[in-house]
Amino acid sequence: xxxxxxxxxxxxxxxxxxxxxxxxxxxxxxxxxxxxxxxxxxxxxxxxxxxxxxxxxxxxxxxxxxxxxxxxxxxxxxxxxxxxxxxxxxxxxxxxxxxxxxxxxxxxxxxxxxxxxxxxxxxxxxxxxxxxxxxxxxxxxxxxxxxxxxxxxxxxxxxxxxxxxxxxxxxxxxxxxxxxxxxxxxxxxxxxxxxxxxxxxxxxxxxxxxxxxxxxxx
Length: 218
Description:
The chain is mainly alpha-helical and 218 residues long. Helices cover 39% and strands 8% of the residues.
């Protein structure tokens, strides 16, 4: 659900939830092993008259590795907004009651996915809505879950995931900039080659005219 409540946690293959049929609900469905390693979720949207799958990632189980040698792959469920400054990274431990620019940028990142942060408010204050959004983020990215400490806080593991998303955006932007620069360089080279060819042709014409002038003077 978009309110972050856990509506079922057991091993049955079928589950029926009683809801208000006039409203739309979102579900994130996970499976996990005996070590509490969670898969990426299947996101379901239940609205009056129909149920649809919004996101269905490959059912792989992975936990983030906090080492520089081996970092987890990043499933981009969030598009980093342009309001985040270039080179920005999260550095603080963020929890309910915190405020400031890091909380503001955190809310901007979370608001990019309405399933994670349906309220989408950017106030710079870490309240209960932001806490629920972080809990959804942690579950979607396999950082932690409700049975572990740090659930709903931006601690080291969650901060690592967030900074990986920021790094992914900056790397993609840098790659695009590099490609554009190379394309511009190649276009300039082509223009210079065409200009050189024109100058060479003009020089040949002048040499021919000079030969004719000298021949006429003899």
